[in-house]
Structure prediction request, 478 residues.
Amino acid sequence: MIPLDHLLVRRRQFLDRIPAPVLLFAGGARPRNYPDNPYPDRADSHFLFFFGAAERDAAGLFDPADGTVTLFLSERTVENALWMGPVPGFGEMRDRTGVDRVEAVERLEERVEEIAGGRPIHSVAVADPQVTDRARRITGIPLEFRDPDRIAPIELQDILADLRLHKLEPEVEEIRRAVAVTHDAVAAVMAGSRPGVREHHLVATLEEGFARHGGCPAFETILSVRGEILHNHHHEGTLAEGDLLLLDTGAEIESGYACDVTRTWPATGRFGPEQRAVYEIVLRANETGVAGATVGTRFRYLHLAAARVIAEGLVDLGILRGSPEDLVERGAHALFFPHGLGHFLGLDAHDLESFGDRVLYGEGRARSEQFGTAFLRIDRDLEPGMVVTIEPGIYFVPAILRHPELSARFADCVDFDRAEELLSRNEGRGFGGIRIEDDVRITSDGPEVLTAAIPKGVENVEALVGGGPAGSAAPERS
Ligand code: GLY
Ligand code: MN
Ligand code: MN
Prediction:
């Protein structure tokens, strides 16, 4: 849990910078099908950042004129107590949260009008469309959750991003907790892996591990022997001899902070020689990215440095031809490493991503138009307090390697016959994909690898795989 004194510091910093009152919403219930059957609550991350936890439908009003914070919560009714259990009263909530006032959210519109007294109100759109509608009506601003230019006034985005991107120790401590939960669960999945185990049993092992600590997946679990499908959310496969299993996951803990880590290992617990060679290239690229995650480094240059390591390795394997510099300049590496090196991490696995490239790239920096590098999610100069992921990979993707235009463009520097050999490996199922992802805190003393304890060296991974109970113990029903 985030300590209250830290939340008070963050609210003070916010109040000192905002030019007008700001109304932040936690968000409400989003129905799965009928209204009384909603998805589990997950409060908006800006709200969590300042309050540490949230009740459904809560809102917080920050008034820079007198430095007060008013928390609006649902009235405590007998019906709610009946169906949902008793909750602390407003007085107790004021003491617990350290706000100046707690009032009924049912009277939000009239109270905000009274407090603002004609001043403009700023707000941030949230994922819950009904709450965003309410924010639009109160502020008169055409807020739109899916549009980075309209999710919040630009000045407010900049203030929120600046605070959230530069993490203070209690926030990093929460990420460390999320990493520890993830570590245990990933280790259990590694130990439970062996040929014959079904992917969804391993997903059960993983997510049970999160639940044991009151956590949940921060994003949909990627666990697949088809690791070349970058965001593969299908778990219908069965591990077989010759398969590589890719697990990209992260626990989100009670405070909302997340981990995001990827490990790849052989189903049998022993890398074949070709698998090991490719794995070691990805590992070198990962280590290059991690070591270079220092203050002042522009993220795009780090991405390109990792890409050169991959290009060099693929030249050594006879898959690419030419100098690594030229290959990366032309974008040939992206046929095998087609995504960006990483992103910000924090309360969201892709932190601040809803604010778009103005925040993620910085003023005046635009996306590359080149295939692969165009998917780079961030391009800021790294600053102390930022937490980023470093997640290079090598994938053998039929849709890319057999793409007529890409094959023609790179005919001189890609050995497509050799690539075909890799696509035919594993009794035609293909080589698959390898990604190794770590979470790194930028400090003035150098990078701090928050996920360092989660094994990634070849011998460490091999020692762990298959050493525990096989997947979930649940019997197969059909
Ligand atoms: N889970 C997607 C990613 O690693 O960014
Ligand atoms: Mn990931
Ligand atoms: Mn990631």
User: Anything to note?
Assistant: The pocket of manganese (II) ion (ligand 2) is lined by residues 248, 260, 262, 437 (CB under 6 Å).
